[in-house]
């Protein structure tokens, strides 16, 4: 009889666990690198629309200051050196371009409501927008969708960027928000987690729409949905899931930062 397999050590997973920084400058550089890479990845998926779409990351040192992509630049070619440091009032503190002040106001409002959140993703993806047009939550019809079970909200009225405070409050304590007639917004304790939740919500919306078009989806029961969310719905699980995309799906662009 063969020997019983032994667990694979964490160090052999092929990527590092979320780092713990003691120097704010190191943490800032890490967040900026992850943010630029995430924007390139989202651009590769086509998840931007003209000048719409932003991902923001809280600065680890300066209160009410956030790193964000500049106005009018395609996601695909962005590097850490291109990012802007913007305060909560939308004023550019560092960087050579403008920020989309109206769109960024939503990010600032979410960051203010959720001081523990590091990153916010609010960009354009077709299935999330289609589900938002129906004014529906993500249903627990797959294991993947269960990570959002009772952990996302619906703002069931049309709210534009001028309603930033209302959007910030509507998210509540959850990881995702469906903005009716607009699309998806996700947050996380790291850039990696926030972006993974956006991708996961978009895919869950796609499956839900396909299933509804084919027939009547069968819901996963409450107890099982909760257990699945508890197992797979943490920011650490999101961070781990994102790593193959970061390494294999994104072609890094040389940064001068």
TrEMBL record:
**According to the UniProt entry, where is the signal peptide?**
none
Quote a single Gene Ontology cellular component term.
Answer: cytoskeleton
Domain Class II aldolase/adducin N-terminal: from-to ranges: 33-209
Q: Which SMART domains match?
A: Aldolase_II (SM01007)
A GO molecular-function annotation:
actin filament binding
Q: Identify the Gene3D superfamilies for this entry.
A: Class II aldolase/adducin N-terminal domain
Q: Where is this region: Disordered?
A: 1-26
Superkingdom, according to UniProt?
Answer: Bacteria
Q: Which InterPro entries match?
A: Aldolase-II_Adducin_sf, Aldolase_II/adducin_N, Aldolase_II/adducin_N_sf
Question: In which family does this protein belong, per the annotation?
Answer: Belongs to the aldolase class II family.
NCBIfam families attached to this UniProt entry: PRK06208.1
The protein here is known as: Aldolase
Which species?
Streptomyces subrutilus
User: Organism classification, top ranks?
Assistant: Bacteria, Bacillati, Actinomycetota, Actinomycetes, Kitasatosporales
């Amino acid at each position: 009889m063969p020997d019983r397999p032994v667990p694979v050590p964490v160090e052999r997973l092929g990527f590092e666990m979320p780092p713990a920084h003691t120097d704010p400058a190191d943490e800032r550089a890490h967040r900026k690198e992850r943010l630029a890479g995430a924007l390139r990845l989202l651009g590769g998926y086509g998840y931007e629309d003209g000048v719409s779409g932003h991902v923001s990351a809280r600065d680890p040192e300066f209160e009410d200051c956030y790193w964000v992509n500049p106005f009018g630049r395609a996601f695909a070619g962005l590097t850490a050196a291109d990012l802007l440091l913007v305060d909560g009032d939308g004023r550019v503190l560092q960087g050579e371009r403008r920020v989309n002040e109206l769109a960024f106001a939503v990010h600032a409002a979410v960051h203010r409501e959720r001081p523990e959140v590091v990153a916010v993703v609010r960009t354009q993806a077709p299935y999330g927008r289609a589900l938002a047009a129906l004014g529906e939550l993500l249903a627990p019809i797959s294991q993947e969708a269960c990570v959002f079970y009772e952990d996302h909200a619906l703002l069931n009225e049309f709210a534009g960027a001028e309603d930033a405070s209302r959007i910030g409050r509507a998210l509540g304590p959850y990881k995702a928000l469906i903005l009716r007639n607009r699309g998806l917004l996700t947050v996380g304790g790291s850039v990696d987690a926030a972006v993974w939740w956006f991708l996961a919500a978009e895919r869950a919306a796609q499956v839900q729409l396909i299933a509804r078009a084919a027939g009547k989806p069968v819901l996963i029961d409450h107890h099982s949905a909760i257990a699945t969310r508890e197992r797979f719905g943490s920011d650490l699980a999101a961070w781990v899931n994102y790593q193959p995309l970061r390494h294999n799906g994104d072609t890094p662009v040389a940064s001068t930062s």
